Amino acid sequence: MKRALVTGGSGSIGSAICRRLAEQRLHVLVHANSRPEAADAVVEEIREAGGSAEAIGFDVCDTESARIRLQAALESGPIQVVINNAGIHDDALLAGMSPEQWRRVVDVSLNGFYSVTQPLLLPMARTRWGRIISLSSVAGVLGNRGQANYAAAKAGVQGATKSLALELASRGITANVVAPGVITSPMTEDLFPPERIKQIVPMQRAGTPEEVADLVAFLASNRAGYISGQIISINGAMG
Question: What rounded mean pLDDT belongs to the chain?
């Protein structure tokens, strides 16, 4: 059974991805940092549905701690599917953005991509099969007012992924980015009321975590073996 790691696996999109990968008969490592009980709940849900999962906890911003935790996980075998989903918002216009706001958002999304992915590459490459899928955002593709830090971090992940795809292509490993638009979650319900969604999304509705998970699951499957180095938007035709 192949093993998959989903960072931020306890959130709305992350948990949907975990459930969908488990349905594809992957053993899922459900990652969380500040809310381990939420990861445990996702694991329990997967197991009750007949799937295979375990929780894993570490701070993606702490490169050394992440490496130690991942090395321990690798003792049970390679992790061949990596979903870089962890990310945070801390919005402000750049003119008023504090250094901490900039650094923290970039640290989680961009430096976290490195901290999680890099230790897993050589064991994955030895199997000559792997899938690396990173979650970006419409902000990383188009930019967004008040989110220069978030857009910069996600655009950085996109560039890193394109480079990684070239480095790993001969090893049977693909690397892609999924860039969601407005997706239903407790956070977006506050940020995007229905009338606002109708203004900015041509399809006039928010996407669902399950729709994102379906796309990620396809990219993680054998059927997507010739898709690599791509940024695939799922945003209701926002651009």
Answer: 97
The answer, yes or no, to whether residue 188 has pLDDT greater than 80, is no
Fold of 3-234: Rossmann fold (3.40.50)
- d(Cα 25, Cα 46) in Å, to the nearest integer? 11
From 112, 150, 181, 201, the catalytic residue: 150
Q: Is 150 a catalytic residue?
A: yes
Nearest to 111 by CA among 148, 147, 67: 67
Label residue 133 by pLDDT band (50, 70, 90): very high
